[in-house]
Design goal:
alpha/beta; 23-stranded parallel sheet; seven-stranded mixed sheet; 8 helices; 37 strands; 32% strand; elongated; binds uridine-diphosphate-N-acetylglucosamine; binds calcium ion
């Protein structure tokens, strides 16, 4: 089958410089949701009709499998599909989707396509309590005979509550003929795709319909309000799926997944967490309130405590991270590591059982096993021009408020005294420190305030 995605419309009500179909839903452009759903149907061709926003839209959506048809000017949905015709395989049916209707499911579309087969026209329709604005499905003796746009409809037709979602599937050669016969003789002076329905009926082609599993599948985005509503619907679906898989969510209404979240057994997630990219959480792990986690793997039994930000990292089993930790890209923590409050790490590997519990920066560092990093330890990894590595071997003990001026190495079992500025390697199993001698000035007296001069 062919899939045509209509994405040329302006989206004036978004009040934005960004083309409407590029506004993100769950971190991904609206149009990308539609493209992904189209791909899931395994079509032979996907054609996107673009116009408003021009090349910006083309550049934002990736895929060698996509064909692009420019619609300029935009003279209606029928005109839009006409622009796609040269790209279509006439031997298979064509499914028309909208780039601003992102929640339609694979199952619903598969059902529509199946009911239309190779030679029928299929419409996805839905019954709405308030059908205002939509095209109405007009039936005679139960059979669909035409679609009438709201603006062209009389009062009796406007009373019909079954509406056209805009999604349809049609035999392609016939569709091309029907489109050729369209006129702009209507209130909006546009080429209406919906007018092909009456032509098909005239041609004695059967018109069938399918319903979505849920009415929300057919909602479009025309404003920021609707975008936010669809975001919640989408997130609610994700939360429901996670709970069905056994994840404990403190509140399914306070979860945001902008990518793929894969959880093991007995994972629990507290409120207000945001997951981006691909995040994998192992069995029995927990994520505290207000964490943001992107492209990260979290080992079994790990605890991520509140207010932690993690990007592009790997957390070992039974590790304890946070509260208030910031793990930047390239952080790789072994089993049972502890990273505490106000600790920042970047491009740093820390092996099993090591701890950095308070107020530290570790960048471009390799830390061995069972190392203790004291409070306030900082790796000086950047000399203003280049980054350098720090290596801290197994069982080392780094005293508080130490600066490790990279490149530098701390040997196995070495101890650094508190307050050390380490500029040369520290040998194994020895105490190394750099500290000025402590002195007490016996003769010193604290100054006292002079009495104010009388005036
Ligand atoms: C359309 C349908 C209506 C249906 C409604 C569902 C027609 C004539 N009407 O109306 O029956 O109930 O959708 O939401 O088809 N587009 C283009 N080029 C154009 C015009 C539109 O690409 O020249 C795209 C838009 O970007 C959008 C989609 O087509 O993705 C629908 O356009 P829109 O203007 O929203 O159609 P409606 O008037 O709402
Ligand atoms: Ca619309």
């Amino acid at each position: 089958m062919n899939v045509v995605i209509l994405a040329a419309g302006k989206g004036k009500r978004m009040r934005s410089d960004l083309p409407k179909v590029l506004h993100p839903l769950a971190g991904k452009p609206l149009l990308a949701h539609v493209v992904d759903c189209a791909r899931s149907l395994g079509p032979s061709r996907i054609v996107i009709v673009y116009g408003h926003g021009g090349e910006t839209v083309v550049r934002a959506i990736e895929g060698d499998d996509l064909r692009w048809a420019l619609q300029e000017p935009q003279l209606g949905t029928g005109h839009a599909v006409m622009q796609a015709l040269p790209h279509l395989d006439p031997a298979v049916p064509t499914l028309v989707l909208y780039g601003d209707v992102p929640l339609t499911t694979h199952e619903t579309l598969a059902r529509l396509v199946e009911s239309a087969g190779a030679d029928k026209l299929g419409l996805l329709t839905v019954e709405l309590a308030d059908p205002a604005g939509y095209g109405r499905i007009v039936r005679e003796g139960g059979r669909i005979v035409r679609v009438v746009e709201h603006k062209d409809a009389d009062a009796a037709t406007r009373a019909i509550r079954e509406v056209n979602t805009g999604i349809m599937v049609a035999p392609t050669a016939a569709l091309a003929r029907w489109l050729g016969a369209l006129s702009t003789d209507n209130v909006q002076k546009e080429y209406y795709l919906t007018d092909v329905v009456a032509t098909a009926v005239h041609d004695r082609v059967a018109v069938v319909s399918a319903r979505p599993a849920d009415a929300s599948e057919t909602l479009g985005v025309n404003s920021k309000r609707q975008l936010a509503e669809l975001e919640r619907i989408f997130q609610n679906r994700v939360a429901t799926r996670l709970m069905d898989e056994g994840v404990r969510l403190a509140d399914p209404a306070r979860l945001d997944v902008r990518g793929e979240l894969v959880c093991g057994r007995d994972v629990s997630i507290d409120v207000n967490c945001v997951f981006e990219g691909r995040v994998v959480i192992g069995d029995g792990a927990s994520v505290g309130a207000n964490c943001v986690i992107r492209d990260t793997r979290i080992g079994a039994g790990a605890q991520i405590l509140p207010f932690t930000l993690i990007e592009d990292s790997s957390i070992g089993a039974r590790a304890r991270i946070g509260p208030y930790a910031r793990l930047r890209p390239g952080t790789d923590l072994g089993e049972e590591t502890h990273v505490g409050n106000f600790v920042e790490m970047k491009n740093t590997r820390m092996a099993a059982g090591s701890k950095a519990n308070h107020l530290s920066y570790l960048g471009d560092t390799v830390v061995g096993e069972r190392v203790n990093i004291g409070a306030g330890t900082i790796t000086c990894n950047y000399d203003g021009a280049n980054k350098h590595q720090t290596v801290i071997e197994d069982d080392a003990f780094i005293g508080s408020d130490t600066q490790l001026v990279a490149p530098v190495r701390v040997g196995r079992g070495a101890t650094l005294g508190a307050g050390t500025t380490l500029t040369r390697d520290a040998p194994e199993h020895k105490l190394t420190m750099s500290r000025t001698q402590q002195t007490t000035v016996e003769s010193w007296k604290r100054p006292v305030k002079k009495p104010a001069a009388k005036s």
